[in-house]
């Protein structure tokens, strides 16, 4: 009759193994020490039981160890189980000191051939560590496996940069690439070829995209391209691919995840190292959208924004519409202000090329203003920050700014009179077209004093003959600007413009007269300044 099991081992509270103490102790030095220690303390044999928490691989790992022990120290070792067996052997002290050719020795012998393994085998062994990464890392397995992967990646980088753009990298494999490793060494790598390369994925991108960020971080470190040391173009492209997939397929708190943040920083440094020679303006905004989700450090973000700001004249409206939900607004207004300021600092000279770029950005910012104006959470200070971040020379016409102001006022009907006047300070009235000035003067959302100032500015665009200049204080009856003789000399177009201006000016005069008859409430809305001695309204 076989001897009954005399040892109970509880693994992680999930499964209890009934074993023979003699069989297990023959190979597991760690368990043997625990059992001997308990016997010396007076525990009876029937009560021998051990609970092991956080065992490598859980019950599955211990079951493999039991099979090894009950099979006289033999078990089939494969790429899929070698890492688990190795970690279990180290954990349980299954060394040569306990018995010759123990489990630890057998796994180490198997792992000696890892540098000759195929890519697929190396990937299998790495993914097998998923349930016990901490043990595999602590016992040195991850370092060994990742160093093998790093060599594959580095070799593929050389192949990808030297191969012809027409070749399909996604269909390549480490085996086919090894045959072509030195076949293009005489070809020169040009920026155009690099751009074409970066638009394609290396064959290993999707294979590594499913790995956790701590493994990818170790891989980057093994390649020697971590954070500011990253000058690897293909690795940079992979990291951007990886981070983009992480935001789409994984539930991660990116802003608080240090592992992802380190990868985002590494990718950004890689982009900065090649700059605008490799990435277009739209490509740089694409990078910014990806890495911003992972909480970039201030220094590396500043460098990336300098790179984008230097080419922002190539941007489109869609490029500028970066989400700002985490800041309480629909779009990231502060980002655009910073980028435009960088651009202005780099293109501040008055030469023709810089002025042309400034005007291009001016038209872009006017479109951006109209896009962000309906945002209910957009503050006036932010609107003005965008409108005023460019010098006056960037705009030949301010009609776009006026349209944006009008949209803002329509979307924010409850703002005060003072705030409306403040909002209009970004307008250059002399650069408004006549049609815009006419619309502004009739606009009930625009403060009357702003409308008057716009009208006065329009007068300078009409030939000024026979102005009444005898007295600085002009009465309403003296605001007729031209005599009949002069008017007859104007073209038909100028006559029509003058007539419209006269009508609007008399409308302003009527406002001044009506002011004397208004009650105190309306007086507060229109006359915000202290009483003046002048008989005519002051244009501010």
Written account of the structure:
The protein has 540 residues and is mainly alpha-helical. 56% of the residues lie in helices and 3% in strands. Strands 2-1-3 form a three-stranded mixed beta sheet. Strand 1 and strand 2 form a beta hairpin. Helix 1 packs across helix 2, helix 3 packs across helix 4 and helix 18 packs parallel to helix 20.
**What's the helical proportion of residues?**
55-70%
Average pLDDT: 81
Mind telling me the C-alpha Rg? 38 Å
Number of helices: 27
Order of helices and strands: EEHHEHHHHHHHHHHHHHHHHHHHHHHHHH
Sequence of strands across the biggest β-sheet: 2-1-3
Largest sheet report: 3 strands, mixed
- Structural class assignment: mainly alpha
Identify low-pLDDT runs.
161-172, 175-197, 463-490, 514-540
Counting DSSP E segments of at least 2 residues, the number of strands comes to 3
Overall, the morphology is: elongated
Termini separation: 111 Å
Tell me the β content. Answer: under 5%
